[in-house]
Amino acid sequence: MHKGESYPGEHDALIDQPTWDKIQSILKESPRKRAAQTRAETPALLKGVLFGPDGAAFSPTHTRKGDRLYRYYVSQTILKHGAGACPVGRVSAGEIETAIIHQLRAVFRQPEIIAGTWRAAKKQDHQIDETEARTALLHLDPLWDELFPTEQARIIALLIDRVDIGTDGLQIHLRIDGLSDLMGELEGGKIRQAA
After folding, report:
1. How many angstroms separate the CA atoms of 190 and 193, rounded?
2. Domain residues for 100?
3. Is residue 133, in this structure, part of any structural domain at all?
4. I need a labelling partner for 178 at 20 to 30 A (CA). Which of 76, 100, 144, 161 fits?
């Protein structure tokens, strides 16, 4: 297209028409719907960071009933010693991932976290000012839903050292150096969004 007029291409198509049509139909879906579909097919968001009250790791798993996929995390203690061996044996993946993401998004808006991240980042790059740190972290909150699930999982691994789950709630242990690294990525435009 040039100035509203279409001209035929001068080279052979790189992609066959059925593949092109399929890609175009996928791109017409909403980013949130595509992300939800992809998330069901990607590694678990909290793999390697979720631990139970006895210190045992939780592993991602799933089951299918008909066309429906049910994802959850199960304690290694339960897998080794059977039901009842851990007070928190399994948790819904969707519920706990949503809770963790909600908490992280709240963290990005906390002035003391922004200030602490800025101080940590300033040790690595003396030219970063607090306004840049605030802008970068505040930018991530609305951007989160547009990220590819694999990018969300990478950011979770970058930001979270571990999550301890107990009968009375969750405790999230953040990586301060991860926050400053993330801030640098946000400023450099290295975060990959879903199309």
Report:
1. 9
2. 46-188
3. yes
4. 76
